[in-house]
Amino acid sequence: MLSWACKWRNFKRHNFAAEFLGCRHFEKLPKSKRYCRETIGSSILCSQNDPNLLSSLKLNDARIIYSVAAAMGHNQESHPESHLRVPAIVSALDRMELSAKFRGTEIIELDHFKPASVDDVASVHSKNYVAGLQKAMDQASQQGLIYIERTGPTYATASTYQESLVAAGAGLALVDSVVAAAESSHNPPVGFALIRPPGHHAIPKGPMGFCVFGNVAVAARHVQRVHGLKRVFIIDFDVHHGNGTNDAFYDDPDIFFLSTHQDGSYPGTGRVVEVGHGDGEGTTLNLPLPGGSGDIAMRTVFDEVIVPCAQRFKPDIILVSAGYDAHVLDPLASLQFTTGTYYSLAANIKQLAKDLCKGRCVFFLEGGYNLESLSHSVADSFRAFLGETSLAREFDNPAVLYEEPLTKVKQAIDKVKTIHSL
């Protein structure tokens, strides 16, 4: 924890502002309305997701559908979870012609969505926490910025509560659209929620580790409650353990949570022996990977752990906590994934969803704090969804990689396979 904190203090943010602000901007609207993105020359309307809208968006022709909630008002200067993260991704997608305006109906941006409701969030978090955060907004308005928990540098500004609801709502709208598309298409689009604040550390009783509301967890309950999809498989490949999602479903037999993360990293949870409790015993799988694990390790984990787990669980939908902070260039950890690693993960998870649950799959952005590696890796994930060739060789530098600790990786994989009878 000490080394992680030191890295956070020494983090230097790459300045992408000049790049993306020239072509679009992200604006905070009054509380009485909602938070929407605007592009130069046209405004994007925001309203409740309308089932009749799905046909007009031609979802059956789409390979990717994404939503954007940049939370520009939720920002602390020099904080690694920067307000520049989502704009850097959007700028890269535009530059590489992987966004909606370049791909017709092949890639669709869903901009008609409403914020999550208090009831949506309270399906995972305690009502006392949700109400308390809402009340804290007055304090944040007066002071400019407040810290809202003690276990990590999680802060709030005057817009944090509303923007966190918008982020969760962006994910729910994607889930609705992907589920609807799967009813009429054998190859529905993959959803990707480009949102912040992230969510997988937020525990049921409060925020933690940069995270405010558990976006993936809220979506999992929404899938069950609204769409009647009982069995939800959650893959979390963020470099840090998704302890909030872990805790939310620890005793739930119908939600399988699988997390790969760096051993010993923040927040210190996610031991291999944490497998669930009561009726949920066996539906939590934690695989801590030794520092230095990279592409070979993750490909092996996917083949030997993730695939057999998913096949045995037989999910109705796959949700993904997509953290890009395991990248070798990321400042907050010590794994050495590459852009190519994320391409493979995206392609393989899409295929897994197609094989097991009619292609129903939605990714949710979690970590990723080097803006260049983050934006390139998300863009290559989009290429994987499209079945296009990876451009990882243009971005990855093999010279920065070192030998993976494959003996330790094998020991970790064998241990989890034994515990879970894989």
TrEMBL record:
Domain Histone deacetylase, chain residue ranges per copy: 79-383
A GO MF label: histone deacetylase activity
GO biological process, one term: epigenetic regulation of gene expression
Cofactor or coenzyme needed: Zn(2+)
Keywords, alphabetical: Chromatin regulator, Repressor
Species of the source: Erythroxylum novogranatense
InterPro entries in alphabetical order: HDACs (IPR000286), His_deacetylse_dom (IPR023801), His_deacetylse_dom_sf (IPR037138), Ureohydrolase_dom_sf (IPR023696)
Protein name: Histone deacetylase domain-containing protein
